[in-house]
Amino acid sequence: MTDKLTDRTALEQLLDGGWKLDKNGDALTKTFLFADFITAFGWMTRVAIHAEKMNHHPEWENVYRRVRVALTTHDAGGLSALDVTLARKMDEEAGRS
Ligand SMILES: C[C@H](O)[C@H](O)[C@H]1CNC2=NC(N)=NC(=O)C2=N1
């Protein structure tokens, strides 16, 4: 089992950075908009490598240059520190796109 998130400061930072909580507070969501499809897909590829290394995987959908993301930890039945780490990686990689 993975522990539930207790770091409220980290969560606040993500909310300030455009992440939202879903209605149950169980998932972090964000919509990323890129210049075009290939930039979106390149970002997804880089994030996928991080996710695989972490063994922590996003729920996401891509339509053309937009990627909608939801992060949650099934193991914890809500948010964990892994979601915070992956959210930060996504923001960091989007800054390189
Ligand atoms: C067996 C394996 O460790 C689990 O299924 C992992 C894989 N990826 C995962 N990803 C996410 N987002 N939440 C999980 O609880 C999770 N669990």
UniProtKB/TrEMBL annotation:
Enzyme class (EC, first level): lyase
Catalytic activity: (4aS,6R)-4a-hydroxy-L-erythro-5,6,7,8-tetrahydrobiopterin = (6R)-L-erythro-6,7-dihydrobiopterin + H2O
Family the entry assigns: Belongs to the pterin-4-alpha-carbinolamine dehydratase family.
GO biological process: tetrahydrobiopterin biosynthetic process
InterPro entries named in the record: PCD_sf (IPR036428), Pterin_deHydtase (IPR001533)
Pfam families reported for this sequence: Pterin_4a (PF01329)
Isomerase among keywords: no
CDD domains: PCD_DCoH_subfamily_b
E.C. number: 4.2.1.96
PANTHER family attached to this UniProt entry: PTERIN-4-ALPHA-CARBINOLAMINE DEHYDRATASE (PTHR12599:SF0)
Keywords: Lyase
GO molecular function, one term: 4-alpha-hydroxytetrahydrobiopterin dehydratase activity
Protein name, as recorded: Putative pterin-4-alpha-carbinolamine dehydratase
Species of origin: Aliiruegeria lutimaris
Domain of life the protein comes from: Bacteria
HAMAP family xrefs: Pterin_4_alpha
